Amino acid sequence: QVQLVESGGGLVQAGGSLRLSCAASGNIFSVNVMGWYRQAPGKQRVLVAASPTGGYTNYADSVKGRFTISRDNAKNTVYLQMNSLKAEDTAVYYCHALTVRGYNYWGQGTQVTVSS
User: Is residue 38 predicted with pLDDT exceeding 90?
Assistant: First the structure.
């Protein structure tokens, strides 16, 4: 089991920045990939950014150049730095962990609202 707790969401004006954090606990040694997804009202949950252990990060085209994912392995925490936020970035953001055996774990979600 892996537990994920997010923090850092909120309300920000367009053009502003936010940083999301996700602290992982439990069987963290089984985690292969950590990342962030988001789900806007009435839409499917989609990948925002992913950080494989020892691999290259990847981003959704819509956030490339504006968002940065990073991991602090000593703190078992993954971050999502979001800059130049747009109204279309408004969504609930979910932390995600994928284990080496293919199990998926999700955080509770944190709301990000960008006002235009």
Answer: yes
Q: Is the pLDDT assigned to residue 49 strictly greater than 90?
A: yes
**CA 113 – CA 54 distance, rounded (Å):** 32
Q: Please give the average per-residue pLDDT across 86-98, as a whole number.
A: 98
Share the mean pLDDT of the chain: 96
CA 93 – CA 20 distance, rounded (Å) = 9
Tokens (6 digits) for 104: 């998926």
Q: What percent of the chain has pLDDT over 70?
A: 100
CB atoms within 10 A of CB 30: 15
SS3 annotation, 2-32: EEEEEECCEEEECCCCEEEEEEEEECHHHEE
> What is the C-alpha separation between 45 and 37, in angstroms, rounded?
6
CA distances from 44 to 5, 16, 28, 94 (A): 21, 25, 27, 12
Q: Are 20 and 96 in contact (CB under 8 A)?
A: no
Q: Please state whether beta strands 110-115 and 10-13 pair in parallel, antiparallel, or not at all (unpaired).
A: parallel
CB 31 within 8 A of CB 21: no
